[in-house]
Amino acid sequence: MLKFTDLKDAGRQNLRNILPLTKPFTVLIEPTSLCNFRCIQCFQSLTEENNFSRNKGHMPLERFERVIQQLIDWQGPKLKVLKLSLYGEPMANRDFPEMLQIAAKSQVADRIEVTTNASLLDEKMAENLVIAQLDYLRVSIYATNQETHEKVTGNKMGIDRIWNNLLTLKRTKQRFKSERPFVTCKKLDDFSQDNEYFLNRYSEVADETFIDKPHSWVKADEVDFIKRYYSEGAKVAIDDLRSRTSERTACPMPFTTMAVRSDGYVSPCCVDYAGGTNISHVEVESLQSIWESKAWIDFQRMQLEGRQCDNASCSSCEVYKDDHYTRDNIDGFPVHKLLKNEKLITVSMPHAK
Question: What pTM was computed for the model?
Fold first, then answer.
C-alpha cells in the first residue's frame, strides 16, 4: 500500500484543468462531533457556548445509512476518498463499527480513511477495523511525555495506553494476515528533539510516522489556537506557517470536498466548526442535489470572486493559503464554466437541534 503521505501526489491532476467535477473527490461523514480530548489547539477546548457546542452529538445510524444510500444512488465515478471522521472521535459512537461495515460494503470510494486519537482502540475495535478492511487509519499523537499530553489534551489517560492500543492493532493485523488498515501516526511539529523521539517510538507500532505542520482552524474571536499550543515558542511556529503561505483568492475545498456533519448539515468545508458554511441538510435533499444546487454553485462563485467576506466562517479563515495543506491554485478559473451542472433549487433548511 502507498504511504499515507504519498496519497496526495498519486495520480494527481491539475484541478483547474478538470473543473467542474461531476461529484466531489472527497466526502467526509462525521460519526460524532463529541470528543474525549479537549486539545488546546482545537475548538473542542473552547469554553464559550457556540454553534458547535450547541449542536454536537452522535450521528444516528439511520442518518448514516441514508447518507451512504445517497452516495450509492449518485451515478458517476467513485469518490476518491470517503472519510469517516470530522470534528469528533469517531470511535466514541457505539455504532461506529457498523457504520464502517456499511461504508465498506457500499464500495462508493476508492479508499476509506478514519482519523482518531486511538484512545478507544481496544482489541474488539481493532478486529472491527481489520474485518472491515479499512484502508487507512490516521492517528493523531499529541505528546511524547505524560505531562505534556495532559496539558495539551485535557485528558489524564496514560500515553503508554495509546501506544499499547496501536500495538494491539498491529498484532491483530498480523493475526488476520492483513495489511489493512495502513496505520500512520502524526504529531504536530514542536521544533524540538521530541520529534525524533516520536518518529522512532511510534514506528514500532505504525506503518508510517510523520511530523505535521502547525495550522489553525477558522479563527475564534477569543483565542489564538497556535499561540495556545506553542506558548513561548509561538513565534517559531508562526514564522514557519508564514513561510508556507501563498496569497490566493479562491479556496479549492468547495470544488472537491463535501462534509456531512453528525447533525445532518452539509458543508463544502472540513475546518469550519462554526457552521457558517452549512449549505443544506441530508434530510432535505440528496447529496447529489446539494452538489448541483444553486446554493453550492453560488458558494463556489463567492470563492472565485474573492467575496469571502460574505461568509462569516470564510472571512475568518486562511487555511487554504497554506501550501502544505492546499496544493491547488484555481484563481482566475472562469465562473461561467461552473454553471453547466447547476440546478436552480431552493430548499427550506431545518433548524439545528
Answer: 0.93
